[in-house]
Write a structure and sequence with these properties.
about 110 residues; mainly alpha; about 0% strand
Length: about 110
């Protein structure tokens, strides 16, 4: 019994840095974070039935797609209720990002 508790605590400590590294990667590049999630986990395949939607999400709406994939898989039942607010916030972040890059291009 005691060995299982120690092993569980040790596994929790090992998971924390990986989660922090993933958040850091997501903050630096949401496209890279989404690609890593797609390569190393089955989460993207669970959230989307067709391959075209995550590809379009990586190209046009990476934050929205990343949040949708994470929220779809953490609850185990899909995106419901208040979780949609985070997906909508992802849409706002993506639109703001596209708008800022268009404004920078127009300035030159």
């Amino acid at each position: 019994m005691e060995c299982e508790k120690v092993a569980t605590r040790r596994n929790l400590k090992e998971d924390i840095p990986l989660g922090c590294i993933f958040v850091l990667i997501a903050l630096l590049s949401s496209r890279l974070a989404l690609a890593l999630v797609w390569i190393f986990t089955p989460w993207v395949d669970r959230a989307f039935s067709a391959v075209i939607w995550p590809i379009l999400g990586i190209i046009f709406l990476p934050w929205t797609t990343l949040l949708y994939v994470i929220l779809w898989n953490t609850g185990g039942r899909g995106v419901t209720g208040w979780e949609w607010i985070f997906v909508i916030l992802g849409v706002f972040v993506d639109v703001a990002s596209h708008g800022a890059s268009a404004r920078r291009r127009a300035a030159f």
